[in-house]
Write a structure and sequence with these properties.
The chain has a single domain (3-75), classed as Transcription Regulator spoIIAA. Helices cover 36% and strands 30% of the residues. It is built from 3 helices and 4 strands, in the order ββαβαβα.
Length: 84
């Protein structure tokens, strides 16, 4: 499962596809103050990125992959980071 959810955090692992967007949307709607852990994420579909952007979710951990981290930091609104 590319995204696992708990009460306060969505943890992204590996490739997150468009098929994951509906569940992500539901979680974001129910957890408006949640955070996202992208440390193990290797690919994020644009639909999932758009949901994160619209929700303004805080990022607890950025991806380990430098290219993906740079891309996501540029795409996500300022002030969404919970850490370096």
């Amino acid at each position: 499962m590319p995204v696992t959810y708990d009460e306060n955090k969505a943890v992204f692992d590996g490739t997150v596809t468009v098929e994951d967007a509906e569940t992500l949307l539901e979680w974001l709607q129910d957890h408006q103050h949640g955070t996202a852990d992208l440390a193990a994420c290797t690919h994020l579909h644009a639909a999932d990125l758009q949901l994160l952007m619209a929700a303004g979710i805080r990022i607890a951990q950025w991806p380990a992959d430098d290219d993906l981290k740079t891309w996501l930091k540029a795409a996500l609104p300022a002030g969404t980071s919970a850490g370096p």
